[in-house]
Each structure stands twice: as C-alpha cells, then as structure tokens.
Amino acid sequence: MTNLQNKIDFTVLVKVENANPNGDPLNGNRPRTTYTGQGEISDVCIKRKIRNRLQDMGESIFVQSADRSDDGYGSLSERASGNIKDTKTQDEYARKACDKWIDVRAFGQVFAFKSKDKKDGISVGVRGPVSIHQAVSCSPVDINSMQITKSVNSEPAEGKSSDTMGTKHMVEFGLYRIKGSINVQLAEKTGFSQEDAELLKEALRTLFINDASSARPDGSMEVIAVYWWVHNNKIGQYSAAKVHDSLRVTLKEGVLSPASVEDYEIKVDTLSGLEPEIMAGI
Fold this sequence. Notes:
Blueprint: E1 8-19, E2 23-24, E3 30-31, E4 38-41, H1 43-56, H2 76-83, H3 90-100, H4 102-107, E5 108-114, E6 121-127, E7 130-132, E8 135-140, E9 143-150, E10 164-182, H5 184-190, H6 194-205, E11 221-230, H7 240-245, E12 247-251, E13 264-268, E14 277-280
Antiparallel strand pairs: 1-10, 1-11, 2-3, 4-8, 5-6, 7-10, 8-10, 9-10, 11-14, 12-13
C-alpha cells in the first residue's frame, strides 16, 4: 500500500429527477430541504451509499446495512468482537480495526460496546481522514406529493380489507453538490492509502449503482461529474473552502426554474498550480 502524500479535495455533482434522495423521518419522509427551499442530502446518507459501493467492489465494511450483511454478524459489537481479539491497548485495537475495514480507516468509528458480563467493555475512538459535507442543491427544489393506496390483505381478516392510504414525495428536479476532503495527517494515523483514495473516487463516480428503490427508481439519480483536486503537499496549496468555491454552478441567463442540467452554467475557476481531474459519472 502506498502512503497518501497529497491533500485531496473533491466535489460531486448529482442530478435528481422525480426521486426522493433523502427522506426526513420527522417530516413524513418528505425530501430534506433548508429553510430557503434548497434540497439536502445528509452526510450520513452519502456515507451509507459510499459504504455500499465499496462493499460491492469487494472491500471489507464495518458498518453494514442489515440487508447487506456479508459476514454472518448481526450487530456491530458482534462484528468487532469476532474480528478483533487479543489487544492490549486502545491504539492496538484501533490499528487492527483500520487494517480490517476500509470505512473505519476512511470515516473513523467509535467502538463503544459492553462486554458479556456488562462489568467492562470497549471504548475506542478512531478519527477518519475523509470528511463529507451534506449535499445541498444549487437552486431551490419543487417537491411533488402523491397520494397512494394499498389494497392487499396484509393481515388475516373477514372479507376484503380496507385500502391503506399513504403519501409519496419526490423532488421534481434538482442538481445537488457533494463536497469532501481527505486529510493526509489523519490518513497517516489510520493507514488510509493512495489505493484507498482511488477506491473512494470510483465509489463516488458510481455512487448510485445498485441503489434503486421505490423512492429512487433506477435512473432517477445520476452522478453528473466528479471533480478531484490533488494538492502538491500534505496541507494543501489552498483551503478546502477556496477549492470547493472554485467550482461555480450558476443558472443561465433567463432561466428562473431549472428543469435540467443544461439550465446551469458549470465552470471551474483557475487556481494557480492546482487543476482538477474531471470524471463523468456512471
């Protein structure tokens, strides 16, 4: 494995069309929005999708979805105790966890589990080098709501059961921006390598493969492009804020309500000595 030597910043542009990219369970599962009407996708949701993609790519993942568990463990504590044994210090425990799971050495993890006798336990924290912002749409989004009914007998009953009413919400169109960075100093501590960074890049480029659901039909969410800035040193030639702000996404003249990516002008401002690698999504 090659040690990471250069700070990395990245931005992912994501198109959403007639889909619910991230429902809010405290608001009837409506798509998340800011007070100004811009769409949001939480960083937790984005990391879940990245973990799923890395798992599809054959990498070992610690925080697995229950329906995607591939190692027979039913909980995080079982997975931790089944894979990390005979450790004498917290540092040794953290090192073994980072060696085993790519999401631990990327995002970090808190290991806080009770022992079987409940008198002692594990308390280890790992701080990861990969930081992900919540995604925010470039313009306010319109949310459509649809009343739906279910006419099936899910429970035994005499005669025909009554219809069950529900509501389905979707963003009509939105162009979302995901921002992130990779810190070299923290990567040195967790062992996050150059090869891991390449895997993360590919996971971002293919973020919505195998992610289809009723709320997100196949093709309704698409990665438009990944912008990948590799600095020439460990701390970065520019701040992450300046790098992310160098990608400007503005509405074209005369467009009031965007309905497609073509309604935006997407431009990267030049930063001396720092050019992004631009990759189309899939």
